[in-house]
User: Fold this.
Amino acid sequence: MSSPQGRFRAGAKKLDRLVLTTVEAHGKHLFYRWENQSLLHVHLGLYGKFRSHPCPPPKPQGAVRLRIVGDAHAFDLNGPTICEIISSERLEILCRRLGPDPLRRDADPEQVWQRIRKSRASIGALLLDQSVISGVGNVYRAEVLFVNQIHPNRWGKSLSEQEFGAIWETLYQWLRIGVKYNRIITAHSKQRGKPGRLNGAERLLVYKKIHCPDCGAEIKSWELGSRKIYACDFCQN
DNA sequence: AAGAATGTTATGTA
DNA sequence: CTACATAACATTCT
Assistant:
């Protein structure tokens, strides 16, 4: 996040010379541990954003929930769903209800599979269920089902173990690419060079697309698990 | 300038 | 009890 040293203000609290000791992510929940033992929990939600400023930072713009000021740089946290100081008990409760995160070393895909194989819920809904698997999100959900040719409406229990294995493996690879380039990239063009150079339209396969990149058919979209899903009825079944 | 959105949880129902 | 579906919330961007 920021330089690990800085001042830090949260709500009525203003703390001096805090030093960041560890940063950890579990799914989309972020946890910042500070030297004074305090624990900051952040969830960006749909539009939360960290913004960097040179010092001295300008007046806070919009919903700034947190400002960290170092010697040379400052960071604002705008519009997160969650920004709170929590106890370690709360941290434990939070993490206990989160399913495995493919990016984490401690992630056990078998746990996810055991939930999916017994479920009558659609695989599309299951991939967004944070107690089943965490960190996927709406874009990767559409993309991972497309590339593995699995229809979002299929029941979890209809998937083969091999199909689930392929989903997990794809997510594992893609999420790492996402971290590396700091953006979601699922389409890899051989022509265009580095994925970092792809524009928004090029770097995804089905999400918000009109036509299927494989067969050219119209991409269908509908609500699934209270989010919009995109799929090709011909290539995914 | 209305409405969708790269998200999650609480609550209700079968 | 479990497991699903739906509503509610929050702010930004187009």
